[in-house]
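fold description:
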Amino acid sequence: MPAAVRKFRRETSEISCCLKYLLFASNVVLWLSALLVLSVGIWAWSEKDMFRNITRLHYIALDPAFVLIILGGVTFLLGFMGSVGALRENTCLLAAYAVFLSVLLIAEIGFFAVAFVLKDKGWIKNQATEGLKAFIRHYREDADQQNLIDWIQEDWLQCCGIDGPKDWDSNNYFNCSSIAIGSREACGVPFSCCRRRPHEQIKNKQCGYDVRKDGYGMELSKIIYEKGCVQAGEEWMEHNLIIIFTTVIAVMFFQVSI
């Protein structure tokens, strides 16, 4: 075959150089970010010795470290296929990348469509309730879950329990019957349920002690949040619906663009 013909065929098969390196650069950033998230998740799991403690896998899906591992792993694979496929102009990797991205996009659209359809039937509320129940039951058993629910109650929603402070009775440490075994936290709530006082520099970790005991002697609403986290979450979503919708559209647009 003449050299001119080979050169012409090679030139017509090449993709735009600008598009190639734009795709490569964006996926390298995605790949490195995913590597960081994956590393943090694996480190957190190893610190808790979860790789050997299989008995705790019954609530694995609620483990923030596990979520980081899954999210980091999927994104790492996606970024690797996109960056290497673009750099090497490998059609197999690029095809797998496109299919993988399309599946993720369809799954996200399907999830949000189902959530929107079932929102009035209580599906989202039921899922949130079941997740919070597990968080409350295992509050002292997993540091990551403990930090997560403390953040939800204190920093994000300013709430306490599922429907209110009484829900902490389902935790062995905060149950009122635990007074008999000497639990100092019995008939109380975690410190994250407490309202932050003006000019308070250091949070009082014992502020929730005894607040659910009969005859506590102080007005409860001034000490702790009495609103449940499910109701607080519903109100937060209603107030931030435009921001949530815009964020979802932006994420989907980014996925389509890369």
Residues 154 and 192 are 5 Å apart (CA to CA). The chain is about 60% helix and 0% strand. The chain has two domains: 15-120, 125-233. Residues 15-120 form one domain.
